[in-house]
């Protein structure tokens, strides 16, 4: 970990692992709900319509949580490989305050802002 003053790698990894467990639990719960593990569709057509609308919400939650889970796992891997805290774009250290706020961050503030500006232009 590159020059991350008061940020302890062990604490960061412990926090990331706890987040990984929570996200994995939530992904599994959403998956069970999507498979209707707790029962099939209601026989009432209006209720079925509501359940199907909920499926769309579940799909969105599943996508967001799977994406975050992948980012957390990647951060754990970077920490284990000694690359945690280094910007993927400019290879400069990511400030500890940013890593405390988002331990899965892969870009420093400057590169993240540049990426957002570029995405906004597209």
Strand content: under 5%
Distance between the termini: 34 Å
Which structural category do the helix and sheet elements fall into?
mainly alpha
Largest sheet: none
Give start-end ranges of low-pLDDT stretches: none
Tally of contiguous helical segments: 4
What is the fold-level CATH name, i.e. the topology? Four Helix Bundle (Hemerythrin (Met), subunit A)
Tell me the domain tally.
1
Q: Which overall shape is indicated by the principal axes computed on the Cα atoms?
A: elongated
Concise account of the structure shown:
The protein is mostly helical. The longest helix is centred in the middle third of the chain and has 37 residues.
Report what the structure shows:
The chain has 122 residues and is mainly alpha-helical. It has a single domain, classed as Up-down Bundle (Four Helix Bundle (Hemerythrin (Met), subunit A)), CATH 1.20.120. Helices cover 67% and strands 0% of the residues. The chain has helices at residues 9-34, 45-81, 96-101, 109-121. Helix 1 packs antiparallel against helix 2 (45-81). The longest helix is centred in the middle third of the chain and has 37 residues, at 45-81. The model has no long low-confidence stretch (mean pLDDT 85).
């Amino acid at each position: 970990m590159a020059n991350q003053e008061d940020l302890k790698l062990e604490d960061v990894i412990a926090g990331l692992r706890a987040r990984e467990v929570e996200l994995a639990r939530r992904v599994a719960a959403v998956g069970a709900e999507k498979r209707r593990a707790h029962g099939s569709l209601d026989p009432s057509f209006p209720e079925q319509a509501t359940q199907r609308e909920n499926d769309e919400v579940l799909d969105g939650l599943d996508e967001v949580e799977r994406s975050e889970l992948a980012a957390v796992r990647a951060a754990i891997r970077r920490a284990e490989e000694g690359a945690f805290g280094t910007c993927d774009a400019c290879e400069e250290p990511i400030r500890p305050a940013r890593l405390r706020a988002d331990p899965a961050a892969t870009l420093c503030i400057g590169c993240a802002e540049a990426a957002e500006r570029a995405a906004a232009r597209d």
